[in-house]
Specification:
single chain, five-stranded parallel sheet, about 575 residues, three-stranded antiparallel sheet, 21 helices, alpha/beta
């Protein structure tokens, strides 16, 4: 139906150009808000009436008559109706809707994909401090970032997935101290290990059991693999630097296991420490100073971030000579830009909202050619976990939060991904563990996957070793029932949905679409028997359900969710 729509758009553009030179470039169709009003809508008459000083309904009638005379509209359109002050509601012939089945079966896994555009996008997500296991918030970020990466790939972008490791700073010192104390035989609750929430020093220690695991491995002089390097502990509890390196490597290895359980891979792990080692942070600060965008006050170096819309100037270098955390962020994003990524999307928690203005201010003040509004941000809220009707807040392993691996072990990778993507990122979300394992229609991932498995069962009923290629060119004229036509119209909307979801960094739109598509299939299945005696009817219906299975498979793949053939 994409080809049909393109033919109709071309005809519309030609007629609009005749009415008003230049208007043809703005030719567009909309989806009617009420399905009974038609399959496509056109508001051009209302938009052109004022500049042309004409009555919009009269202009609509003129456009209606012109379109009805075009070969494309005569071939594919059943009726054009005038509504209200000049809306054109367009009803397609069944043959027009049937074209989408041919398109889906011909394109297969590539249905919905746009041609390569020759542009790169970097999506940075998870980027957890290597100070503990990944929690469910990281899981939401992982699901969002991976799905957004898939969405950009469908639109022809060359996608680079990046994980930024904050392997420097206060939190790494906290990890090292906590591990050292455990290695020396101390534990939470001991006098040297404050646990009073009102005591600021209590924040200087990590209490989870995983710290003891690191300490035990350190004392055993274990070797762990992180990225492409191996780190071996020397077992000396006084060697602070060796403890630091080993603890960071140990937790990076643990986080890799979390990501593997989530079937997630990154193209690059970028270390914060490398920004210092390679001189990028110092170079960035020197550039800002040289550009006159800083000043000294109270023994600190400040960025004139208010010049770029921030609510106040920000400290870059503190009195003790250390940099505040947004300074390496600015250096990092300059590196992203200089690596050729003119588009960057950062997936972060809403607690990072305050950093957006200062990072963008620093990038503009650096004056290296980075456009305003760079990078894009997608902010997400944290996740509540409910199990057996009660909120779960603590994991024994992590000490203070539910880990991503906990959630996967309680449910499944597919359920975690689909559930965490089923709401807009910036809305609160409660993950119901019991619902995620339920095998009923209330469980959204089960509902969608069951639709796919149900179709595969029908196809096996046709031929155990079925090949959908045999259905690509069958006669589709029997597909005239209302449920079949509604299903085909929804299949045709898949490419547009992907384009809009990518443009809006909105993977939740894919979950909404898949649930609608599954519902449309179940409705069709209940209305029309597929494996009938009439061979022509059977072949047409099999082609329709095979195309539906393909689009369900494609959409689930965007989410990183499997499409089982049996359930």
């Amino acid at each position: 139906m994409l080809s049909v729509k393109q033919e109709l758009l071309a005809a519309l553009a030609d007629e609009l150009e005749k009415v008003s030179p230049g208007a043809g470039s703005r030719a567009a169709f909309e989806s009617p808000k009420v399905a009974a009003h038609g399959d496509l809508a056109c508001t051009a008459a209302m938009q052109l009436a004022k500049p042309l000083k004409q009555n919009p309904r009269a202009l609509g009638e003129q456009l209606q008559a012109a379109l009805e005379a075009t070969p494309a509209f005569q071939k594919w359109v059943q009726a054009i109706e005038i509504a209200g002050p000049g809306f054109l509601n367009i009803r397609l012939k069944p043959a027009a809707k049937q074209q989408v089945v041919h398109e889906v079966l011909a394109q297969g896994a590539q249905y919905g994909y746009q041609p390569a555009r020759g542009e790169k996008v970097l999506v940075e997500f998870v980027s957890a401090n290597p100070t503990g296991p990944l929690h469910v918030g990281h899981g939401r970020q992982a699901a969002i970032g991976d799905a957004i990466s898939h969405l950009y790939a469908t639109q022809g972008w060359s996608v680079h997935r990046e994980f930024y490791y904050n392997d420097a700073g206060v939190q790494i010192d906290t990890l090292t101290k906590s591990t050292q104390l455990r290695a020396k035989g101390f534990k939470p609750g001991d006098d040297c290990w404050p646990t009073d929430a009102d005591n600021p020093l209590a924040k200087n220690f990590y209490n989870g059991d995983y710290i003891q695991d690191i300490a035990d491995a350190f004392l055993a002089k274990a070797t762990v693999q992180a990225d492409d390097r191996a780190f071996t502990a020397n077992g000396d509890v006084q060697d602070y630097e060796n403890i630091r390196q080993f603890a960071v490597a140990y937790l990076r290895n643990e986080q890799d296991k979390d990501l593997q359980a989530f079937n997630l891979q990154f193209d690059q792990y970028y270390l914060e420490s490398s920004l210092y080692a390679n001189g990028h942070v110092d170079a960035t600060v020197q550039r800002l100073v040289a550009n006159g965008k800083t000043y000294e006050q109270d023994g600190a170096l400040w960025l004139k971030s208010t010049d770029y819309g921030d609510d106040k100037d920000r400290v870059m270098r503190k009195q003790d000579g250390t940099y505040t955390y947004f300074v390496p962020d600015v250096a990092y994003h300059i590196q992203k830009f200089q690596r050729g990524f003119t588009k960057v999307v950062n997936i972060q928690g809403t607690d990072h909202h305050g950093t957006i203005a200062r990072v963008r201010a620093g990038l503009q003040a650096a004056d290296v050619g980075i456009p305003q509004g760079y990078p894009d941000y997608v902010l997400h809220t944290m996740v509540r976990v409910v199990r057996n009707g009660e909120e779960v807040k603590i994991s024994k392993r992590a000490g203070s939060y539910v880990t991503l691996r906990d959630l996967i072990e309680w449910t499944s990778k597919d359920a975690v991904r689909f559930f965490l993507l089923s709401r807009k990122p910036d809305t609160e979300y409660t993950f119901d563990v019991d619902l995620a394992v339920a095998q009923n229609n209330d469980n959204p991932v089960y509902y969608v996957q069951y639709a796919h498995a149900r179709i595969c069962s029908v196809l096996r009923g046709w031929r155990e070793d079925y090949d959908v290629a045999a259905l690509r060119d069958v006669d589709l004229s029997p597909l005239e029932g209302p449920q079949a036509q509604a299903l085909m119209l929804l299949l045709a909307k898949y490419p547009e949905m992907l384009t809009a979801a990518a443009a809006g960094n909105a993977p939740h739109d894919v979950t909404f679409y898949l649930r609608d598509l599954a519902a449309a299939y179940h409705s069709y299945y209940d209305a029309e028997r597929i494996l009938v005696d009439d061979e022509t009817v059977k072949q047409a219906r099999l082609a329709l359900v095979a195309a539906t299975a393909q689009v369900l498979h494609n959409g689930l793949a965007v989410l990183g969710v499997s499409a089982p053939a049996r359930m």
